Amino acid sequence: MMPNGGEILVQSLIGLGATKAFGVPGESYLAVLDALYDSRGKLDYVLCRNEGGAAFMAAAWGKLTGQPGLCMVTRGPGATNASIGIHTAMQDSAPMIVFVGQVGTDMKGREAFQEIDYRAVFGTMAKWAVEVDRVERLPEILSRAWTMAMTGRPGPAVVALPEDMLTSQTDVAPLAAPARIAEPAPEPAALDEALGLLAGAERPLILLGGCLWSGPGQAAMQRFAEASDIPVLAAFRFQDRFNNHSPVYAGEAGVGMPAHVKRLMREADMILAVNVRFGEMTTDGYTLLDVPVPRQGLIHAHPSAAEIGKVYVPTLGLIAGPNALAAALRPVAGRWAAWRAEARADYEASFDLPPQPSPVDMGVVTAHLRDVLPEDVVLTNGAGNFTVWPNKFFRFGPHARLLAPQSGAMGYGLPAAIAAKVADPSRCVVCFAGDGDFQMNCQELATAAQAGAQPIVLILNNGTYGTIRAHQERTYPTRVSGTDMVSPDFSQLARAYGFHGERVETTADFPAAFARAMAAPGGAVLDLNISAEALTPRQTLGQMRAAALAAQAKG
After folding, report:
1. Among 173, 188, 201, 437, which has the highest number of CB atoms less than 10 A from its own CB?
2. Omega before residue 292 within 30° of 0, cis
3. Under DSSP, is residue 12 helix (H, G, I), strand (E, B) or coil?
4. What structural domains does the chain harbor?
């Protein structure tokens, strides 16, 4: 008997090198689920509790491993639930493929049960959206989706699978391997020009980010930056792409951007931007570089020509992948030693924090974590003011990783942590979550327990939607509306899911509690008692309220 489309899809994914798929089952793709019965141990299905959580896991998998994260969901509600992870993978430039069940081709266009036009819905959200119209084309479409997800600017592809395309039989051969596509390298003359521009600068700066860095590529970029003595900034939430212990590393250009980082961006006279898409957070709302022609010289290197010149007109654009570029760079010499030294000194000084106004002082907690976590730790977070702690006050060495959403999506941190534990159950993974952020996907603790992929979760519990509350206090002081939260007992909730659960009341209690969390065989959730006044490391709600009231009085 010839295989059906579901079997061809699963066999092709195995041929492409896929080992895990995250999903929520649906009757629209039963033939795929049936084929997965025979693929266990080769391509395993991680059963999730919500399609949004599954899509976040796939997006994080792509960011962590450099291979497309796979997500499988049913039509209609399943696909729309998964859309948050698709949007996040696009903004993160993370490789991902989402397979969505679809009504049979004989029912299309009638608004059949759960029918959606996937090209229309995801056409502007994903890098590519396609619907299979002939079972024989499945290998062709899968190959293209995999290639699209991995090349140029990486991102998500959405593949809609009509039910009859999965049950129809075919003699087409499944894929046996992915296409081998070399990373684009810089043209030699253009590279020479770029190095000349850097050598002629007085205040050069390197800004880097993006996915699909290799270990050798990161090491080569570090050697170049150190040999040239040029300060390095990471783009928003990509500080794990460069060794933070290097004497040239100067910080992250992202949310809560420190003053010294803004100064470096403003005062640089030549910026080498590598693998960066110039988003709002990295540019402080597009104010640090003038649009469209920056005051600073700009060398923009990216594997996708579509990203070069999209926002800023570069002095020189290089169509090059980050690893190929790093391998080709040659050290340059200049007169900027004091510029680099000051940048590093300002970065070091940013770790000097006063005591925080909270029963659990996150400055002290983060310092403790810097001391005790292993070198290859994976930190994850969703969205909220709490993210300043893993994003600004942790030092990522060459083996540590950060999984955090450039889209600012709440609820990403826990699914991302689970994906990291699925990838390597022996690796230490710590998720930072606010109380609101955690409750977006806390049901995925069940996914973690079932998959044997239990991370450590730190809930910074301040009883409020902190980021929105901060903006509210600044703009509408004394008029709190819709931001106070009443939450469950998180430690009891954690225990119900088989995790170690514990409430940490004071700073002094944290080291012992975290040691118990590290030793817990089934993962842990620590509920940290954080004051609502301790929203950021430099400004409390009370200070913001007083400043806003003073401004109103003057007005």
Report:
1. 437
2. yes
3. helix
4. 5-167 (3.40.50.970), 188-349 (3.40.50.1220), 362-554 (3.40.50.970)
**Helix residue ranges, H only, 24-76:** 30-37, 51-65
Separation CA 484–CA 504 (nearest Å) = 21
User: Is residue 112 predicted with pLDDT exceeding 90?
Assistant: no
**In this structure, are residues 265 and 205 in contact, taking their beta carbons and an 8 Å threshold?**
yes
- Write out pLDDT tens, residues 16-35: 999 999 999 999 999 999 99
DSSP state of 169: B
**Phi and psi angles of residue 379, each rounded to the nearest 5 degrees, phi first:** -105, 140
Condensed to tens digits (0 to 9), the pLDDT of residues 325-340 reads 999 999 999 999 999 9
Quick count: other Cβ atoms within 10 Å of Cβ 485?
A: 17
Tokens of 319: 């169509």
Sign of the four-CA dihedral 362, 527, 456, 96: negative
- DSSP secondary structure string for all residues of 436-454: HHHHTSGGGHHHHHHHT--
The pLDDT score that the predictor gives to residue 533 is 60
Q: How far apart are the first and last CA of the chain?
A: 80
CA distances from 155 to 99, 127, 158, 283 (A): 14, 6, 10, 21
Handedness of CA 18, 19, 21, 25 (dihedral sign): positive
Question: pLDDT digits over 33-50, tens only?
Answer: 999 999 999 999 999 999
Q: Is the pLDDT of residue 551 over 80?
A: no
> How much is the pTM?
0.94
- What is the overall mean pLDDT for the chain? 93
Candidates 433, 411, 436; CA nearest to 53 is 411
Reduce the DSSP state of residue 401 to 3 states and report it: strand
Cα–Cα dist 233/339, whole Å: 13
Q: What's the distance, CA 408 to chain centroid?
A: 9
For residue 547, give Cα distances in angstroms to 74, 258, 469, 553: 50, 20, 15, 10
Which pair of tokens denotes residue 188? 């030699």
Cα angle, residue 94 at apex, residues 88 and 99 outer, rounded to 5°: 75
Q: What is the pLDDT of residue 539?
A: 43
DSSP label at 351?
Answer: T
Burial class (CB in 10 A: 0-12, 13-18, 19+), 323: buried
pLDDT at 484 over 50: yes
pLDDT number for residue 194: 98
Which amino acid makes up residue 495?
A: R
Closest by CA to 66, choosing from 213, 184, 183, is 213
What six digits make up the tokens of 142?
């899968």
List the strands of the sheet with 232-235, edge to edge: 249-253, 232-235, 204-208, 270-274, 297-302, 316-319
